[in-house]
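Catalogue entry: protein

Sequence with per-residue tokens
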Amino acid sequence: MVKLAISWGEYRRRIERVREEMGRRGYDALLVTSGKSMFFLSHFTHMTTERPAVLVVPQDGDLVFMGPLLEADHLKHQTRLVGEVRTYLDYPGDKHPIELFAGWLTDMGLGKAKLGADNPAGATGAMGYTGPPLSEKMKDAKFEKAGDIFWAMRLCKSEEELSLMRESAHEGEREVGQPGPPAAPGVHGFRPLGRGDLLDGYSRGLEDNEKDAGTRVRADKGR
């Protein structure tokens, strides 16, 4: 069977590699604010906005998410690798999220820890965000910039990642090799599916699509 997604095992291997590097650098935890790096580690993806969000990688155990309430349900549906979830209602709120983050991290026993962070400010600074740096609210902790951990990891692909890249290239090559009808002025490359498309789909053994009235069958003529 063709693999179409990164496995949970691969995500866990990534987390272990990060923890190995954390150990070499003496970090008690790693704070991740980059949306892309969060996804790389946990499969949780979201749109980075002015609302601060942090994925905490402890030395062991589940990952911890701190962020806006509106992401809590999304996170639970997207990943099984995050355990504790701490949220605030919205930004800036009655109490700034950075102050909440400082308190939550202290509650986790990290108030005097050595912390690696892709952004020691504790927030990406996107979309007009303003606020104090997290290091200012955790004066007894030591912060060290550590975003390079992810760049080094992402440069060296695992066999599972390479397999998916090969499959993607194969599918792309196949699609390019079977172009649609010639373009014409005022005509785009997409059209609504009609009854003829559905019948064509059925003739190729796709009768199951008829059971779902909401299914749209893509016509793959020529394959």
About this structure: Helices lie at 8-25, 35-42, 72-78, 97-107, 134-137, 148-155, 159-176, 195-203.
